[in-house]
Structure formats: structure tokens, C-alpha cells
Amino acid sequence: MYCPFCRNPDSRVVDSRMADDGSAIRRRRQCPECGRRFTTVETTSLSVIKRSGVGEPFSRSKVINGVRKACQGRPVTEDDLAMLAQEVEETIRASGAAEIDAHEVGLAILSPLQKLDEVAYLRFASVYQAFESLEDFETAISILRHEAEVEAKAAKGQGSEKSPL
Ligand SMILES: [Zn+2]
């Protein structure tokens, strides 16, 4: 890899350590040409297997592009999308798999997107899960509503559901 400062094609590893619970290795490198130091991070490569059977490297920007359309007109910032993509990657990497179906990437998107924006979530889910009828929307909405109620209850009074005994 090239030195990011002087583009010298060689560098020397001066330190290696585990990072992120052992799922990555950080290497401190020094350029023999200009003497400056930089850090590289080594992780297992993560392949996404498309429906055609072809694998391609996991890419956060693909996740962001996939979600961006569903977020049109919603109060969702680029930072929100970047955070979502990071969460998706962390979820997938935590599973320990080196290969993952494109379908599972979609599944990993649903939960953080629901937290981010419910309308965007419904849009994404309707395409991703191929909603075919109003009932599919109604089901998804009633699940969202139920979850919101459970959360509201939990926020209101912890212990209200405790038995009087
Ligand atoms: Zn250099």
C-alpha cells in the first residue's frame, strides 16, 4: 500500500494490535521514505452474495444508496445514513460470517431504519418485503403502533406492570 503522505509504495509495520473485540487488527506503519506514520485496519473481507450468485464486497455506500430513496423528503441527514450503514455493517460483522446474502443485508437495515424514521422504514419494507396489498401495510403499521405503545408504557412508569404481591 502506498504511503498516504508521499506515495512511496513501501511501508514498514511498527506495531500491530487487536481492535474491535478481535474482529480487526490495527497496524501502525512507517514509511521508510518520508518517515511518517499511518494506521491501517485489517478486517476479514465481507462478501455480499447477490441473487445471481455473484459475490461482491460489502459496501456501506451501497447500503446508504439503497436506503436514501426511502428517506426522500424525510428529516434524515447524511450523518444519520452514515450511522445507519455503520450499524448495519457492525451487525453483520458481529455474526462472524464471511459471506452474507444480499437478503440478509436488507434484514439488517430494517431495524435501525425503523428507529431512524418510521415512514422511511415503511417505504423500505414495502419494497424490500414486497408488500402486495393494503393489508400488508396495515399489518406493518399495527406492529409499529404496538411497539410504540409498549415503549410509551415502559417510559411512563416502570413497575406499573409489577404484580401487587
Ligand atoms: Zn512516505
Structure description:
It is built from 5 helices and 6 strands; from the N terminus they run E-E-E-E-E-H-H-E-H-H-H. A hairpin with a 4-residue loop joins strand 1 and strand 2. It is α+β, with helices and mostly antiparallel strands and 165 residues long. The longest helix is centred in the C-terminal third of the chain and has 23 residues. It starts with 11 loop residues before the first strand and ends in a 9-residue tail after the last helix. The strands form 2 sheets. It has a 3-stranded antiparallel sheet with strand order 1-2-3, with no helix packed on it. A 3-stranded mixed sheet has the order 5-4-6. The chain binds zinc ion (ZN). Zinc ion binds next to loops.
Brief account:
This protein has 165 residues and is an alpha+beta fold. The chain is built from 5 helices and 6 strands. It has helices at 60-68, 78-94, 102-116, 118-128, 134-156; strands spanning 12-19, 24-30, 37-43, 47-49, 55-57, 99-101.
**Distinct helical segment count:** 5
> Could you report the average pLDDT, rounded to the nearest whole number?
88
User: Major β-sheet, in short?
Assistant: 3 strands, antiparallel
Order of H and E elements: EEEEEHHEHHH
Uncertain segments are: none
Spatial strand order of the main sheet: 1-2-3
- End-to-end separation: 67 Å
Work out the strand percent.
15-25%
- Give the fraction of residues assigned to helices: 40-55%
| Number of distinct beta strands | 6
| General form | elongated
Structural class: alpha+beta
Which ligands, by name, code or SMILES, are bound? zinc ion
CA radius of gyration is 22 Å
